[in-house]
């Protein structure tokens, strides 16, 4: 499973109350080791106690120390309580405060402007930091506006967001609060590169992380801390694996092309099919066990079985 060249990527995660993000990070670490991707940075687009230190600790444990980590310090308005972050933050990491890590838009603008090639963005959380990137102005890194910078330096945006199997779908990443709704609307109407969406309906029937048994395995323990000891639905790991393979069909999906819309007041999404459209959402081309077994095999390859 190789791409002809490593795809440079930035990943956005809510790293919040759900734990499929933790599973996704192990898939990301695997893809990096396989040479499918080169991780330029990871952004956290919701902010709670222990957010950045816990992600730093988990990535370090997964063999990805010293990655650039950004955090949206303005995103304290998503409801929910810390579930696995405090436990992870007891593991080795660099800084103890969220404020000691780089600000989201600063990180996106710095990495994109410094890159000599196009960077893909994977988003497995809210759209709010990406919306702020679009609104950003010229700075010390680039004379370009956010939208111009994205157009010049981003190859494609891969998003776990939306629900696309019914005319008016509604899914958490586009509807968690008013900010998420407005951001979703903005991304669909203004983001200037192709976007592929993997929707709620795709991951909802695929549980992964359920075959881990190592009592010292950090992912197994984090899932237990998140009250999901028998695994979790696979929205985020499926998105990360598809984007790392960098080809919807090779990853086991059919792509429906067209234009996506999000209602900024309700968070509902809809889609108009058009073979020339800039957007697309995926439909499974294989049985659920194909995705489940592929991801579980990746998780087990990196499992601490002691
Ligand atoms: Ca997520």
**Quick one: CATH class?**
Alpha Beta
User: What is the annotated CATH architecture?
Assistant: Alpha-Beta Complex
- Stretches where pLDDT is under 50 for at least 5 consecutive residues are none
Average predicted local confidence, pLDDT = 96
Distance between the amino and carboxyl termini? 28 Å
Q: Strand-and-helix sequence, N→C?
A: EHEHEHEHEHHEEHHEHEHEHEEEH
Bound molecules: calcium ion
CATH-assigned fold name: Inosine-uridine Nucleoside N-ribohydrolase, Chain A
Q: Quickly count the domains.
A: 1
Major beta sheet, specifics?
A: 11 strands, mixed
Strand order of the largest sheet: 4-3-2-1-5-6-8-13-11-12-7
Instruction: State the fourth-level CATH superfamily.
Output: Ribonucleoside hydrolase-like
What is the molecular shape?
globular
Radius of gyration: 18 Å
Binned strand content: 15-25%
Number of strands: 13
